[in-house]
Amino acid sequence: MPSEIADYALLSNCRTAALVSRDGAIDWLCLPRYDSASVFGALLGDDAHGSWQLRPDEPDAVAERHYDGDTFTLVTRWTTPGGVAEVHDALTIAPHTVAVVERIDLVRRLVGVSGSVAFTHRLRMRPDYARALPWVRQRGTRAEPELVAIAGPDSLVLRGAKFEPEDHSHRAQVTVAAGEMHDTVLTWHPSHREPPRRLDVAAALDRTRTWWTEWADRIDVREVHRAEVVRSLLILRALTHRDTGGIIAAATTSLPEQFGGARNWDYRFVWLRDAALTLEALVAHGFLQAADHWRSWLLRAIAGDPSQMQIVYGIGGERDLLERELESLPGYRGSAPVRIGNGAALQYQADVIGEVLVALHAARDAGLAESAFSWPLERALLGHATARFDEPDRGIWEIRGEPHMFTHSRALVWAAFDRGVRAVREHGLAGPVEEWERMRDRTRAEIDARGVAPGGWFTQFYGSTEVDASLLLLPAVGFCAPDDPRMLATVAEIERTLVVDGLVHRYRTDTGVDGLGGDENPFLACSLWLAEQYARSGRVADARAMVDRVCALANDVGMFSEEYDVAGRRQAGNTPQALSHLALVRAADAVHAAGGRG
Predict the structure, then answer these.
(1) Cis peptide before 337 (omega within 30 of 0)
(2) pTM over 0.85
(3) Cα–Cα separations (whole angstroms), residue 313 to 300, 301, 340, 359, 432
(4) In a 10 Å sphere around its CB, with 0-12 CB exposed, 13-18 middle and 19+ buried, how is residue 478 labelled?
(5) Closest CA relative to residue 553, chosen from 591, 501, 509
(6) What are the angstrom distances between the C-alpha of 150 and each of 91, 104, 127, 153?
(7) Three-class SS of residue 482?
(8) Digits of tens for pLDDT over the chain (598 positions)?
(9) Cβ of 367: how many Cβ atoms within 10 Å?
(10) Rounded distance, CA 38 to CA 49, Å?
(11) Whole-angstrom Cα distance, residue 560 to residue 576?
């Protein structure tokens, strides 16, 4: 059975990611990209679906872990009666960006600290989401053993420890004494090519540490929750593909929003909304180059006709994200189905253009120069927003029920036209500014007339009196002031209907608006949006208290998933979740701007 979601730590080389449990098991690894098929899939099943555990033989060994500074090298220190030793796990950073990835290296280094500790590697390789049993053979020499596994297009080479077969799995035993080191490296490469040369582990680990540390040193940090903000920004970078610039929503698929339920989705893709919000957080902390890289990705993904724009793409801009269910993986602790692909790619979500233009305008304000195609793309997106102006949509939460005129979506339509106007008025770019001003003003008048309940709060959608946590973002995009009476009334209604045990739900699922069965847990990003709104409207003590409350729900290495199960006191949903981490950055920034104390 997989560990609790909060028991996993992230490894990343900005091309793919792995999850390592407190017990030393790598239970999730997709190769060579975040969205590739899994090689280790025990996270969504058990050991039979692929896992690589490395831990002491002593059953009562005690583990403590941390990252090596501002990196994603995980250090797990094991204390046993006979000694102390560490496991250093890392997906190493390659020297350069590349057109085609030819190798991925995962290092597991044993370091003896005191006494002597015996470790056992337990390895089950199950490529293609556990649908393939690889052909495995021994190579190398006694001094330099190699285990080679091939399944279709993928090949894995293990070097270092001497693995022996054991009932469709492999086992290796290594003992380290004080001052000793022992490295085992798993290398992925295309199976039609010869295995790449042995990794220079010391050089690769040094290069990886330097790469992450130099990136973190460039963070423009504030003092409010400094450590949590830095780790969150690092996680956002860890979810950004180094070569393409695509920013994924999370490193996993199908971790349940409700345990035992069917709200299980694949988040290993690039949602324009999530990526745009991530971009804003990175730009706000000094990473303008990230905006340029993602803007280039956006140009390639949307390409010719914005009317064919999707709200989510593959990491390289792929459009075909056919959603389907896997029978080979039973689901996290039985939470089925396991899905790959995402049907949201076929939805119309009116807010997305606004999110993109808001982010690109923030980058423009920060000094990002226009490229030959960037402003023409933005103009084309505004044309698309005009053409579909009167259409209802599926909203920020990608409902699978009937479309509506969601107030948040309409406010983002307003923001899209507003940023177009500002690009012309403030930056001297060319465009039909009078038309955009008319569309902007028309949208505002529509929301004022149809998006406010008799009680004075903004509504989830036109004709409803329900609220939605996404409404907390209206001041953030400039639609209204944080202390607008309608906004304060919205906050009061959210507190009355959506706040449970101090955390915020996205909306009330029992209204049936999303077209799905079952329920879900409080959404961590929404709780942090409320903290941001508190800070911007003068409730700084409440803002700080909410940020403190959410930060206390991070795991021991600073990771948030999507939701939090209050009754079960456990993280829920896909992890690490970009939206949760970027919302923490925004909330902490808002508290800092408000003076930090109530």
Answers:
(1) yes
(2) yes
(3) 11, 7, 13, 18, 29
(4) middle
(5) 501
(6) 20, 15, 9, 8
(7) coil
(8) 999 999 999 999 999 999 999 999 999 999 999 999 999 999 999 999 999 999 999 999 999 999 999 999 999 999 999 999 999 999 999 988 887 899 999 999 999 999 999 999 999 999 999 999 999 999 988 889 999 999 999 999 999 999 999 988 999 999 999 999 999 999 999 999 999 999 999 999 999 999 999 999 999 888 889 999 999 999 999 999 999 999 999 999 999 999 998 889 999 999 999 999 999 999 999 999 888 898 889 888 887 677 788 999 999 999 999 999 999 999 999 999 999 999 988 999 999 999 999 999 999 999 999 888 889 999 999 999 999 999 999 999 988 889 999 999 999 999 999 999 999 999 999 999 999 999 999 999 999 999 999 999 999 999 999 999 999 999 999 999 999 999 999 999 999 999 999 999 999 988 888 888 878 899 999 999 999 999 999 999 999 999 999 999 999 999 999 999 999 999 999 999 999 999 999 999 999 999 864 3
(9) 9
(10) 9
(11) 5
3 state SS of 520:
coil
Q: What angle do CA 68, 73, 74 make, to 5 degrees?
A: 80
Q: Which two tokens stand for residue 284?
A: 């706000």
- Residue in 472, 558, 573 with CA at minimum distance from that of residue 249: 573
Say which amino acid occupies 257.
E
Q: Where are the beta strands (DSSP E) in 498-559?
A: 499-500, 503-504
Rounded Cα distance, 575 and 248, in Å: 11
| Radius of gyration for the chain, computed over Cα atoms and rounded to the nearest angstrom | 24
Burial 168-207 (b: 16+ CB within 10 A, else e): ebbebebbbeeeeebbbbbbbbebeeebeebbebeebbee
Between vectors from CA 136 to CA 134 and to CA 140, what angle results, nearest 5°?
A: 145
Q: What sign has the CA pseudo-torsion 288, 289, 294, 299?
A: positive
The two three-digit tokens of residue 512, written as one number: 């049936």
Nearest to 175 by CA among 166, 157, 185, 162: 162
Q: Residue for token digits 């270092």?
A: 160
Q: What is the CA angle 278-281-285, rounded to 5?
A: 140
Q: Which residues contact 329 (CB under 8 A, 6 or more apart)?
A: 38, 41, 44, 45, 49, 129, 130, 254, 338
Q: What angle do CA 506, 512, 514 make, to 5 degrees?
A: 55
